[in-house]
Amino acid sequence: MALVILSGFPCSGKTTRAHQIKEMLESKLAQDANDHVAMRKVAIINNELLGVTRSAYDESKSEKVARASLLSHTIRKLSKDHIVICDGMNYIKGFRYQLYCAAREAGVRTCTVHIANLPANCLAYNATLPQDSCYKEETIQNLFSRYEEPNSSVRWDSPLIVFPWCDSLVSTKGVGLTNDCVRGLAHNLEGLRVLGNDGEEVDSSVKPCPKGSNTSQKSVLPDQLAAQCENVNSTLKEEKSWSRIAEDLWTAVTKGDLKPVHAAVKTATPTSTNFLHILEITTSSVLSSLLSAVNDSPTRCGAVSFACVLPNSGKSCIFSINIPMGKTINVGVLQRLKRQYTTMHKQANAAGRGTSTNDEDGIAESFLKYVQGAI
């Protein structure tokens, strides 16, 4: 049905979001009036389920094995009756593209969810984990630097839904800003400096305006910053509530665009072992019978009916074709049309797009339709 690809920094809260998304989707499915939709399942695939520890990211070799395991288990779970949540960092855009191609090949929708969080928060949470289940300092810093953020302008990351790190998402009420979020927001407010009443900088994490910058940028006091944060908080409550995010996600996995399978990853149509042989002898038999009927016709035009014995089955069939007035039908014309027809089907068969069957009746009728259209 759909693949939900989670992406974010290590220790950014992806698993928490994954379970919240799973709970929301299961609730939506249960409420659907369509019994077939209600029977669909939601599954989470993550490193914890696969037994992959955080130490796997210490070395590139073990990390590749971990990613391959996540990819293979996710692909095996994709089906028309499952919503699969791939709960991992998925920080490499090439890996997200692999997941996108796998979903497209399986005929399911895709949606990317970016768990937006600050590195400082991720480091703080990682520090609270037991020694044997946390990231090493150099490992997590390396993952931060290599993270490739999802981009809604590329097809494999679209549609993109961003979960703000500062909301609780515990209920369906609006998103609120915590004190930490306010400080993070202050750090990222472009062109603002937070100054105390004495004009000194009150937070070392808030950098002053660089020298030579636009002098029209304003400095604000803490009270002014609090008022601005409150305005932003109101905007988040109005525009980024959990109910709206949930509705956007539900729409993406149930009504989003279903991308067609690319020819490079499309499964080839099964081919009969003697299809090309039957194609050749059937068209040759039809050509000979048609040429004989045309030569025996007094006018050599108009409706011409003829009998043809199919060479493989020995079945006798009656076919007809309408030859326009003044159109010359001879062996050269029919041989040229036969070569075009067989070449076209051989190429389609090699590319896995042909209808490779042993149905002689179907081949004969198809060939005559091709001849009729050509003359």
From TrEMBL:
GO MF annotation, one: ATP binding
SUPFAM superfamilies with a match to the protein in the record: P-loop containing nucleoside triphosphate hydrolases
Pfam annotation, one family: KTI12
Keywords of this entry: ATP-binding, Nucleotide-binding
Family listed: Belongs to the KTI12 family.
PANTHER family recorded: PTHR12435
Name of the molecule in the record: Chromatin associated protein KTI12
Protein species of origin: Puccinia coronata f. sp. avenae
Species lineage: Eukaryota, Fungi, Dikarya, Basidiomycota, Pucciniomycotina
